Structure formats: structure tokens, C-alpha cells
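ARCHIVE CARD
Drawer: 12
Card no.: 0347
Subject: one protein chain, sequence and derived structure
Cross-reference: see card 0346
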Amino acid sequence: MSDGQDYEPGDRRPIASRRLGWVKATASWMVRRKVSPNGISVMSTVFAVAGAAAILGADRASGSSARLSWFGAAALMQLRLLANLFDGMVALESGRASPVGELFNEVPDRVSDAAVFIALGLVVGSSPHLGYGAAVLAVFTAYLRAVGAAAGAGQIFAGVMAKPQRMFLVTLLCLFEAAAPDSWKGAWVGETIGAPGVVLAVISIGCAVTAWTRLTAIASKLRAGA
């Protein structure tokens, strides 16, 4: 988010790590170096797409190469979240928050989610339907939040499967695939669905619950303000 001295951004996702000393120090360092908040937002998608590529690469590799690719994917998921954390902090601290910055804050995230979940749907132990389903539901939860804000209910971040929770599960999955014995990686459900498919199913169910939670919260706020 950047460039708008008089612009006041809307509600931000409550993230406890913003209060950590090293996080504040890093954000201040970026401000002093005039790092672009919008550039940080774009980098979040670069990390996510690179993570998706690492996931697909791991699926086509074997042995230590596959494990290293999964480790790399886990690291890239966390780098995506760090970029998501710092873009808003840098924009606000530097006084460069702007309406255009809101686009940079939101649109790359939707691309990131889609890239990661679609990639997970294409690996062994998963299904394209699960990947596309998780991608659509993740975008839908963000869509409801945006609709609520536009309708006057403010940004509603409630729900059991918001972005941090989704990326936490994906990171755990990547670490599992990187470190677990091969004997643990067979089919868990039916004859083909293993850990990747199960995680996508959990994310999809969680997103559906989150969508309902947000929809009811938005409706309640709008009724209260009517």
C-alpha cells in the first residue's frame, strides 16, 4: 500500500506479531531504505508462486531433492506471510498508504492463494478438484470481507480459516512431506488421497465455515446499524 499522505486505511487484520520488537525494527529499517509497500505486496505473490512451483517440483522429484523442494516451499509460505505483514506496516509508518495500495494489498493475495492451492491439487495424494475448490473458497472468504466493508460493516476478519490459518496448514503439510518417512505418505482416504488432499479438504471446510461466520457477522452489523 503506498503514496497517499491524507489517506486513512480501513481496519487491518489483527496480527499479534506486529508488536514484536524485531518486526517493528525491520519495518522501520524498510521505511528508512524507502522500500515500496506496493513492491512488498507484489513480492508476497512472487514468494507464493515460487512456493507453488517448489511444490510441483517436489512432486516430480524424488529422494532428497523432493524433500528439499518441500522444505523450500515451507520457507516460501512463511516469506509470503512476512511480506503480507510488512507491506501494511511500512505503508502506515512511511505515510504512503493509499487507495491504490489497497489494491496491491488485496489482489496479489488472491493470486497467491490460487497458485498454492491449485499446485497442491496437482500433486500425488491430492486431486485437482480439491485444489480448485480450496482456491475458490479462499477467494470467496476474502470476497465476503470486501463486500462487508463496502456495505458499511467494516472489515470482518473472523473465522477459523483466514489466510494465516490457511498458510499455517500449508506450511505444516510442506514440512510433513519434507521430513516424514515415506511409509507415512500413502493414501489416507480411499486409494489415492493422502496428506495433501486431506489438508486441502480441511482448508475447504474451514473456509466454508469462515464464509458463514463472516456472512452472519456482516448481516448482524448491518442490521444493528440500520
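Annotation on reverse: Residues 16-225 form a domain with the Four Helix Bundle (Hemerythrin (Met), subunit A) fold (CATH 1.20.120.1760). Helices lie at 21-32, 37-60, 63-94, 99-121, 128-151, 163-179, 195-225.
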